[in-house]
Give the backbone structure.
Amino acid sequence: NAGVMQNPRHLVRRRGQEARLRCSPMKGHSHVYWYRQLPEEGLKFMVYLQKENIIDESGMPKERFSAEFPKEGPSILRIQQVVRGDSAAYFCASSPGNENTEAFFGQGTRLTVV
Amino acid sequence: AQKVTQAQTEISVVEKEDVTLDCVYETRDTTYYLFWYKQPPSGELVFLIRRNSFDEQNEISGRYSWNFQKSTSSFNFTITASQVVDSAVYFCALSFLSGYALNFGKGTSLLVTP
């Protein structure tokens, strides 16, 4: 049973380009969460999605960032017109949605904006 | 609002020493969950423990033990007879729903030297 899969593991983008980060949840998990880890800081919650629905995006920056979790395929975190300050590790976690369980994290995507 | 404080930024110990990582939290919720995660140098997040607010029983797992005290809003983590492989950043986290919108502390970087 594969864990949460994130790709790519490392992503380099020039300022102004778009970054697409992918997350395939664990088998049987229908809930996905995205977190961002800036240098020297802990992880910050960004967005919570279920299939085809955004449940809570209270942690998402208002501009340039979007997330989706389509009926088929992985969840995508999209950052348009990246800036240096977007350089961070982005983690995805998934859970089956049952309250009585923890979320399992992927290995993260490290985005570097040059 | 929820908040997690890990006052120890960095700890350095010699192998075989015991070490305690402190975690203090703030929340107005009566039901909540506390977590510890380990982030080794390779960068992934490894789940260590989850505890709900109604269960104050301390837990021991091998060399790891956790002390949850609601009276002081603390959830401390002790590693007994530390090993070099314990070197990592350890995060404490709080959530009102298990696995959802975790609020992370800034982490404690533990270095265990031979």
Observations:
- Chain A is about 0% helix and 50% strand.
- Chain A has a mean pLDDT of 92.
